[in-house]
Amino acid sequence: MSSINNPLYISYLLFLFIVFTVKGQETAYNGYQIVPEVITRDTVPDEYVKHVLHNLIISGKITKEDSINQLLKLKREPLLLISKATNKYAQEKLAKQYLDTEEIAEYIGRDLLLEIVEKIGPDQNHPKKLCEKGITLIAEKPKIRPHHYFSSPLEIQNNRFIIYHFKSLGRGVGRSEFIVYCIDQNENIEIEKTFVLWEH
Q1: How far is it, in rounded angstroms, from Cα 37 to Cα 119?
Q2: Contacts of 127 (CB under 8 A, 6+ apart)
């Protein structure tokens, strides 16, 4: 009887398959821990919002009290994330980095970057578990409210990831970036480097 047909051997293979599948899913979800951290950080009213409100006060269109109320309202608004991961867009941007030997390619290394580009899967839904972190998943972009797009976390090496993030504050206003980060054994996140593609 060959070892392949041995029930003990088959059980062992199934066990290893389950362990590695669960481990892979756990690593992929752990990579998502960056999402609530970045959204929370970026949804705090930034200098752009304060600048707009300041100009509205100066022009007499709103009062100081209106400005304070607007800031408080922004802090109370839900954290909006487009539910579909922008993997295809992230792949295009990383492929351009690879082909043009731009900053990310130099930082990560072209060979490793090419591996990442080739591993990126199709656009898919982000995990619903993100709702437990106070994030509201939405299918379509809102007209005027700040919202975020992310790719799926792309593992560079063990517990070291890169993720694409786009923050939209309105038409033509926002920030497009890649974030390289690590997750340690205690599931703490450390942002290693941020590459801003554009910011308006």
Answers
A1: 25
A2: 29, 32
Which among 127, 27, 178 has a CA at the least distance from the CA of 135? 127
105 CA to centre of own chain = 19
Residue type for 83, please?
S
Tens place of pLDDT per residue across the chain (200 aa): 445 555 554 444 344 333 333 333 344 457 898 998 898 876 555 566 677 777 888 888 888 887 777 666 666 567 899 999 999 999 999 999 999 989 999 999 999 999 999 999 999 999 999 988 889 999 998 877 889 999 999 999 888 999 999 998 776 678 999 999 999 888 889 999 999 998 87
Q: Are 151 and 94 in contact (CB under 8 A)?
A: no
Q: What CA–CA distances, in Å, run from 121 to 82, 87, 146, 152, 179?
A: 17, 7, 27, 9, 18
**Distance set, CA 3 to CA 16, 17, 137 (Å):** 16, 17, 49
Structure tokens at 46: 């930034």
